[in-house]
Amino acid sequence: MTFVFRIGRLLAPLGTMAALLAASAPAMATTYLGAATEFAILAGAGLTNSGNSIVDGDLGLVTGLAVTGTATLAGVHSIHIGDTVAIQAQANAAAARIAFAAMASTVDLSGQDLGSVGVLTPGVYRFAAAAQLTGTLTLDFTGNPDAAFVFLIGSALTTATGSDVVIKGGGSKSGVYFDVGSSATLGTNSIFSGNILARTAITINHAARILCGRAVALDAAVTMDGNNVSNNCRSGTLGGNRDDFGSNGFAGGFGSSVPEPGAWALLITGFGLVGTALRRGRSVRPALIA
Predict the structure, then answer these.
(1) How far is CA 224 from CA 52, 209, 272, in A?
(2) Residue 282: closest CA among 197, 237, 213, 218
(3) Global pTM?
(4) Which pLDDT band, with edges at 50, 70 and 90, does 68 fall under?
(5) Is residue 137 assigned to a domain?
């Protein structure tokens, strides 16, 4: 099937986010992403596509301008525009970012190109500011398939033309997360694996592919251009010949359980503050223009 977004303002009741987060607690008992797990693309405000894009997973937009574009949904998936499903998914993704931010980093990679760090094993990797990937980043789960990679990136994430994220030795509970403090940009003809949770926007340049993961832009737009994006990669899905080892797009990790920093009340309270900030920010930000 195809989706068509026509220019027009879509408003969502963001004030309900805290309640939705509380209601979603049982789902997040098995994944950090909660309702966002069902999505391949989730945009906070604005969604644009040009070219022949294929999306394997749900596609969602919370609020903002929906810009005309067409793409193909592979398989049996849904489109959510400004509904409670999209809002809950955004809330769960925001709560995941709060949980990630509380984690102690294993290694500080500030100033290093991800393509030059060699083979990484599971852990929490921090960049004080922006992160760049040129060439190939190899993530190896061998010996610890139930663990996770978390990349805490202070500002932007940018991958170069033809770059690649290769994941080895994973299992059904593996997790890979890129927590981006501002925007993420994937280079032309690049291949990405893992879940991008960007504070603002995500741009997926021409022919770039996310073969095992998701693009979640919490506060702004996702822009696509002839891309393949799959949230549940199986060997050969969308021509990628990649495998997520049954992990549902690397949505597990940490024994596939939520951390326990004081249980759900702490996360719900924290996101209530975030939701307020989001609403205030949107009230003064200019509308996106095609």
Answers:
(1) 9, 10, 30
(2) 218
(3) 0.81
(4) low
(5) yes
Q: What is the pLDDT of residue 254?
A: 75
Distance CA 51, CA 115 (A): 28
Region of 60 on the Ramachandran plot (φ > 0 left; ψ -120 to 50 alpha; else beta): beta
Residues whose CB is less than 8 angstroms from the CB of residue 267 and which lie 6 or more positions away in sequence, other chains included: 21, 95, 98, 99, 261
15 has a pLDDT exceeding 90: no
Which residues constitute the domain of residue 96? 2-284
d(CA 94, CA 102) in angstroms, rounded, equals 13
User: In the numeric block, which tokens belong to residue 153?
Assistant: 């990136």
Q: Does residue 289 belong to any structural domain of this protein?
A: no
Decide if 208 is inside a domain. Answer: yes
Q: Is 11 helix (H, G, I), strand (E, B) or coil?
A: coil
Q: Check whether 247 has a pLDDT greater than 70.
A: yes
Strand, helix or coil for residue 288: coil
Looking at the DSSP bridge assignments, the partners of residue 65 are: 9
Measured at the CA of 127, the angle between CA 225 and CA 171, to 5 degrees, comes to 70
Cα–Cα distances (Å) from 131 to 28, 105, 119, 191, 238, in that order, read 28, 15, 17, 16, 27
Q: Is residue 290 part of a domain?
A: no
Q: Which of 59-73, 86-100, 211-225 has the lowest mean pLDDT?
A: 59-73
Domains of the chain: total: 1
Query: How many whole angstroms separate alpha carbon 152 and alpha carbon 127?
Result: 6
Q: Give the model's pLDDT for residue 125.
A: 98
